[in-house]
Design goal:
The chain has 607 residues and is α/β, with parallel strands linked by helices. It is 36% helix and 24% strand. It contains 17 helices and 26 strands. The termini are close together. The relative contact order is 0.09. The structure holds fructose -6-phosphate. The site of fructose -6-phosphate has 13 residues, from α9.
Amino acid sequence: MCGIVGYIGTKNATDVLIDGLRKLEYRGYDSAGIAVVDSGKIAVRKAKGRLDDLEACMQKTGVPKGNCGIGHTRWATHGEPSDVNSHPHSCKRVTLVHNGIIENYIQLKEELVNDGYVFLSETDTETVAVMLEKLYKGDSIKAIDELCKKMRGSYALGIIFSDRPEEIYAIRKDSPLIVGLCEDESFIASDIPAVLKYTNRYYLIEENEIAVLNKSGVCVVDREGKKIEKSVFEAKWDIEAAEKGGYPHFMIKEINEEPKALKNTISPHIENGMPVIPVSELGDERLAALNKIHIVACGTAMHAGLIGKSAIEELARIPVEVSIASEFRYVNPIINKDDLVIIISQSGETADTLAALRLAKKSGAYTLAVVNVVGSSIAREADGAWFTWAGPEIAVASTKAFSVQCAIMYMLALRLSFAKGTLSEDEVKEKTAELMSIPDVVEKVIEQIDPACRELACQNFSTTDLFFIGRGMDYSLSVEGSLKLKEISYIHSEAYAAGELKHGTISLVTDGVPVVAIATQKPLFEKMISNIKEVKARGAMVTLVCRETAEVSNDVYDNIVKMPEISDLFMPLLLAAFIQLFAYYTSVERGCDVDKPRNLAKSVTVE
Ligand code: F6R
């Protein structure tokens, strides 16, 4: 989604803005622009395409020089990607950048057109700039307050008024925005990596707060202009964590970070060999009384929820319903106030997931957020938060965040089974000890299967369709594998529960169609082999992913990838590495933009 950066200080604002926007590229964008106060005037430069296109444009039209400016990467929603639709948008004294969607912009625009204002772009954002110009009578806070009263929707805004060239204003509602704090300079940004090079100290701007940045620092006021005392947050992420560190892409770096991320997520929550939920309201007594759990999330995070469902139902025997957040919101879900609602989100800002959380809270049920970003909206609004310590995930395709979300699902399932009495303390301790040993196994697996995944990518990169099949947890991983492949390699792919194939889909399996069959769950292995034989008999090119001890004759597969012996329960943590490496190398072979796949954004802050 769109990225915002703003800077005021002593450095060359253009350099800081472009550098900050590069750090936000992972959010996905199709055009970019900056506005810098140059010799008292606001110079705007914008261009469709990548930041390199913006820089090329500035080489022709002149690079603005000054110490105060705002910048933006746009992910088109209203109006195609084009120079004119790019941000910043200006109207007379007002220049601004915007992340989010103004839902009532058509009504606002009609009002402004009737007043005689002329519009240049098709965007909702230009309406905001024009409306602010109309409302601005010299009192900037009052004008912003009136603007907020008029707008409906989500927004993070960075604003410069031409008659206040040494100030930046920032406000937000349902779209992320932080203010970076430094000795003699300040920043605004959609996300921490944009400012990490300069500072790890920041304010989180809340709804109804207005941040005013000038050369002497930052003042946060309410909508009436009254000063608000803010707490300073410190990002634990260092700059290296948000850099590629010698890897060709963030995605492969992040896959290789899985063992560390798993250790960081698991170890702090194991006491005396038992998993401990870091939320005091979820003690054993309350867990024991639970009759139903809802897990709500989008995309890959929802797939981690599927692993949670299998683990919780298998170990603790509590029914779990997993819902896609964008569906959950509109089906009038039946939530009992004694239920537990788990919201999973890497970014903590996904618009549908946040809305689902708000809906769940109305039911009175306890809401637990499983989130990677401390201070994110979901983390703050849920009743309790359990953080995944994956560090910053920059590649659009989620990898290490998925693994650590699964790890939390396992710890929760184990604690629940202890509280419910479905497992004895010794049994829980035994499984917890195995979970703690998994990060080292994942490290070895990544190293071992890397060549096989490269080879598979070479064989399959030119295919147009590919099927994943599996049963139980292997099916959940198939669904995630299919998503990963689609999103970064653009190969059409479907995941099927292996037993379901012959109810329709097998008609698509003909000579040479690649099928990745995941068969690691012991009780389901024989059934899987029968399903594999069915596709093999129709000419499929089968890649079998199974345990190294599995006995299988070599006429049922064309390629084989072997996983070390661990229990069925934790196998998804090893399989995650396989599906991610396979998708990664396929994307590389096809020459795709691995970290920034087309049409996708890292943090989906619009519905
Ligand atoms: C796919 C992917 C997405 C996200 C989804 C939810 O690789 O990353 O499917 O998982 O957009 O995002 P978060 O977890 O930030 O709520």
